[in-house]
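2024-03-11 09:14:02 DEBUG pipeline.ingest accepted 1 chain
2024-03-11 09:14:02 DEBUG pipeline.ingest length=219
2024-03-11 09:14:03 DEBUG pipeline.predict start
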Amino acid sequence: MEQRVEAPTGALRIVLVDDHAIVRHGLRSILERESDLEVVGEASAAAEAAAVVERTRPAIVLLDLKLSTAADTEGLDLCARLTQRHPDLAVLVLTTFLDDALVVQAIHHGARGYVVKDVDTTELLRSIRAVARNESAFDSHAAGAMVRSMRVQPDRPRFTGRELGVLQLLARGLSNREIGAELYISETTVKFHVRNIMRKTDAGSRAEVVYEASKLGVI
């Protein structure tokens, strides 16, 4: 059931999509303690979620993959629908499923991040804010699953030493500013390297960059 309230000025608007009301209630309680986050809607099923997102226009959707007893991964299709209709929407998968292939499929369906429900509060909040900045977000379980699912490709692009350094930090979920601080280069230079890496990997997002680089065996 949708619950909409006025968000503080500049707060990140969030919709919760999970078929368990108690989970949504718990998430709302956690998120609304943060002054920069505001839950503006809830949904328990795919059709309801699409309508709530259309109506509330959130910045972020926290999405469980299992939304009914009929299918374990109904959330994947919903993720694709939402991100295709709302290209600026950040979808963060928050689920109990930790299957290597599912992590990869979620990224290909438009998710910017993937965390499992046993993640601690600090990591969940970090992930939410990361995807809002158009960065990738994976907890340690999901990151490991993604790397294990990769296979090295024989034909792979050539990366400079600096690009490889940037890739390593991208895989850790660092922002451009944080990468610049780590490597002692400007944020503008970091953006230049990230654009080159995205071009070389034919990736459309930072999450896909990490996926493709892992598949190529360079991180």
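2024-03-11 09:14:41 DEBUG pipeline.report Confidence is low (pLDDT under 50) at residues 1-7.
2024-03-11 09:14:41 DEBUG pipeline.predict end
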